[in-house]
Amino acid sequence: MSLAHPPAGERAPAPAPAGGTGAVDTARAALAAARAERAADLDRRLAALLTAGSPPAPDGVALVAVGSHARRELTPGGDLDLVLLHRGLSDVAGIADRVWYPLWDSGVRLDHSVRTVHEARTVARGDMKAALGLLSARRIAGDHTLVDELRAAVLTDWRADAAVRLPELSAMCRERWETQGELAFLLEPDVKEAHGGLRDVHVMHAVAASWVASAPDGRVRAAHDLLLDVRHALHEVTGRSTDRLVLQEQDAVARALALPDAGVLQRSIVEAARTITYAGSNLWRRVDRLTRARTVHPTPLPTAGQGRRRGVERRPVGDGAVEHEGEVVLARGADLRDPVLVLRVAAAAAQAGLPLAPATVARLAEHAPPLPVPWPAGARDALISLLGAGPAAIAVWEALDQAGLIVRLLPDWEHVRNRPQRNPVHRFTVDRHLVEAAAGAAALTREVARPDLLLIGALLHDIGKGRPGDHSTAGAAAVRAIGERLGLPGDDVRVLETLVRHHLLLPDTATRRDIDDPVTIETVVTAVSEVPGREREILDLLAALAIADGNATGPAAWTTWKAGLVAELARRCAAALTGGTPPPPPALDPAHLALARHDGAAVRVTGSRITIAAPDRPGLLWRAAGVLALHRLAVKTARTISAPHPAPAADGATGPAETAVLDFTAVPEYGTPPDPAGLEADLRRMLAGRLDIADRLERRARSVRLRPGVTVPPPRVMIIEDASQTATVIEVRAHDRPGLLWRIGQALGACGLQIRAAQIDTLGAEAVDVFYAVDDDGGPLTAPPALETVQARILEALQ
Length: 799
Fold this sequence. Notes:
Low-confidence stretches: 1-19, 579-585, 645-656
Number of strands: 15
Distance between the termini: 77 Å
EC number: 2.7.7.59, 3.1.4.-
Cofactor: Mg(2+)
Mean pLDDT: 88
Family: Belongs to the GlnD family.
GO molecular function: [protein-PII] uridylyltransferase activity
């Protein structure tokens, strides 16, 4: 019988497709059994070739399998890799001919070599491909001792040279990934060589052989087996040794695996590839960390599970999260019963530009309770902060997704998870496209008044894919329930629905309609008017979403020409709209009025809410914000309202005086909240002028060790014209950080301005702050040079 795989016309028929997993399991089991039977048959025949000759092979000779046959994974079109090992025999060429010629005659694709142990060892130390093959060497026939010597020598060298060989292997993998692309997101992938393919699992085993990392876990092995079955089926249905799964072969391969269609096959491949890619990223991060440590400290590399625990610094990066050895792990006091902890730790990791430690993700997946519905504000805020980290959010999101946490947080995600898009314009699966769009939208948060709705809208704009009907309409219906689940106010949910329903409105209209036609502008204006009073806001959100969506789709979907058309359409529609200015300053409610009746000053600290009522004075808001920053409190919202309050005048008569009410919502940057009594005492000292806030903030800033974190868009300062006749309205959009409100207030004070009212909102990691400011005469600034100076001073303070 021939040693080659049967020609295409003699192949066994593929299993018939069926509707259940039982048929799939049966089909895959048959493929695995065929590989095992072929491996056993090959071993018997190869052993016979070595031992049945005349004269028989002497002692000191062995036939060794490397590569796929060594792992008993040889598929019908795979290459047979063999090494004839010997102890320096002079007539070994005759033995080699006796083995190789029958193989060549049978048509087997053969990769062969003849080596002594010393020669094989030398080749392995200089040739990475040879080293990887010999690490999996398996004896087929001949001298056991000789094969044992080879394996021991190669493993000894591999482990001794790990600090050098593993970076070399890492570089080779990255070069291959650059050439082959990412398996999970390719329409016609190479299931062996692409990133996330079979080759990567073989590499993981090689790294594990160095004792630097553990062997692949059960999920990775299962993903590998799925891809191996796909490769096997591909070889069978094509009769060729190809590893690229082209579109025209996908239905046949799906049938061979008893899967319903090519779409189901692709989704299975995507899931397997992402499992392998995620595991590989964790493995290489560990390897890189340990090899860097080896460069600094020339001692043997720690083995898997050891690490460098002693003396490693743990630095807080957020509430419940610390940085440890370049990864984010749970703080010692983190409350695993807190349902918001998952998102809060993920947001901290993304904002710090660090990965989540795999053990931390596993622990969160095991212990985290479900979020209540609707979500508490802290959970929504953490989600926005996570997405607002931009590209750094992608790896963190993937870590949560691999642990099953994303579907637990957002059940609708299951509809798009691992869903391929059989369209060459799209670079990614639906779910990855959505995360990429949200990451891209983070760079556009300064362009919109509601960065939180932009980020959520980008994440959900294609959530309708995989549902019946038009995906925009289906998505708008789905996002209504999701918005309510997230706990968004009703008007915000309606804005989100409008974004999803019309996320293609601007690019489609700009490229398919005449934007000089008034009817075109009217059509867009009508669509963005679905939520009265929010028209301009929706238009700006749709314009930013179009950019994020186009860039996340692919180069063919978003060109300079298209971007220019969309921008011009948005500009013309904005000119047709009126309104869209910030809301008027809020009025005092009964609780504020009650507090304001106190003589002098009153301070109330109730949980995360801090309220101050005091005679109005310049700088009161930002000085109070400075006190909160001293106590490690991050301001999430602030409202400051000035109102007349009866008080004795200097001459004994009763006249109007201004009482300012400052209402803050503030949460700890990390750890436990500060002592309310100490906070209240410092606020009172500030009101009495007995607290040097600037000096204490400067000392605290010097004690903080800076981390690079993520790259964020530059701050933006805008003067909102016609928003008020009695004050200058200044809107500041910036990345939130400790003491932000203090810095802005100082800049306004340096310009001689007093804050009459303010509306401060921190949406995730983005601050959108609106100030109503007046000059020394109590009126607005009007001179353009003075307004330009204000903008410049604030921007300088935020550098």
